[in-house]
Design goal:
The chain is α/β, with parallel strands linked by helices. It is 38% helix and 15% strand. It has one domain: Alpha-Beta Barrel (TIM Barrel), CATH 3.20.20.70. Strand 9, helix 10 and strand 10 form a beta-alpha-beta unit. The C terminus is likely disordered.
Length: 271
């Protein structure tokens, strides 16, 4: 995996964010591709990705991602990016080009994109949706009460509005979000976030344990028990999500392809 990624000059969120599932996923020859470089223009308190001034987008990157998907024989490709507030379209064009390249070179492969908020610009979201990804994800990451502290630069309501617009503009595209726990949220906070996401018709939800990448990041407040994760899953399914993955090492893209494959009669069964 490392050799292939280096040869194609590709980044993965697995490496850059220090994902705890890297070994398991790479052993299974799966990865979440990180486009638009590895330097983010925002600085979230929980995230290991480097913040600073990024380089211009690589025009070869969409084709290189498609080549990696082809070499790995993926049935489901997940593509995410750093935030690129330095670009007029926030990177929407690069997402669109990457989706097109994957679909052109890997027919039959489903595509999931995990996007930033594009500054709330509807026209940039439309550029991505025009390429018909199978799943469009945008993460809340944390509950409303903690959002400004944990995720400066983002806005809780703006993120919800993006998901609402996505479903309104492309109802056939599944929408997805993710929440971390262990940051000081209460069960009431989480249930409120579930309700907010369902209010904008978000289809899928993942819930995982926050693990600080370094001592300089936001400290963990609680290590949530497996029993609590099971309870959160029950509450989320009761709220109306089609699919819920909930567990300590669950991350936004963990076993994302399996989620699509578990649909039976339109009903999704969570992990």
């Amino acid at each position: 995996m490392r050799t292939m990624l280096d040869r194609l000059h590709l980044n993965t969120i697995c490496q850059n964010a220090g994902c705890p599932n890297l070994g398991e996923c790479w052993a299974a020859r799966t990865a979440t591709f990180l486009i638009l470089g590895h330097i983010c223009t925002r600085n979230c308190g929980f995230c290991k990705v480097t913040s600073g001034r990024p380089v211009p987008p690589d025009p070869k990157e969409p084709e290189q991602v498609a080549e990696a998907v082809r070499e790995l024989g993926l049935k489901h490709a997940v593509i995410t990016s750093v935030s690129r507030d330095d670009l007029p379209d926030g990177g929407a064009g690069q997402f669109a080009a990457t989706i097109r390249a994957v679909k052109r070179h890997c027919p039959g492969c489903t595509v999931e994109v995990l996007i930033p908020d594009f500054g709330g610009r509807k026209e940039d979201l439309a550029v991505v949706l025009a390429e018909a990804p199978d799943v469009l994800a945008h993460n809340l990451e944390t509950v409303a009460r903690l959002h400004a502290r944990i995720r400066p630069g983002y806005n809780y309501r703006r993120s919800l509005e993006l998901l609402r617009r996505a479903k309104e503009m492309a109802p056939q595209v599944f929408t997805k979000s993710s929440l971390m726990v262990g940051l000081g949220e209460s069960e009431e906070d989480l249930v409120g976030a579930f309700a907010d996401l369902r209010q904008v018709d978000c289809d899928f939800l993942t819930i995982g344990q926050y693990l600080p990448p370094t001592r300089q990041h936001v400290p963990v407040s609680e290590y949530v028990t497996p029993e609590k994760f099971a309870l959160y899953k029950e509450r989320a399914l009761a709220a109306g999500f089609r699919f819920v993955a909930s567990g300590p090492l669950v991350r936004s893209s963990y076993k994302a392809g399996e989620a699509l494959q578990t649909m039976v009669g339109g009903i999704w069964h969570g992990i």
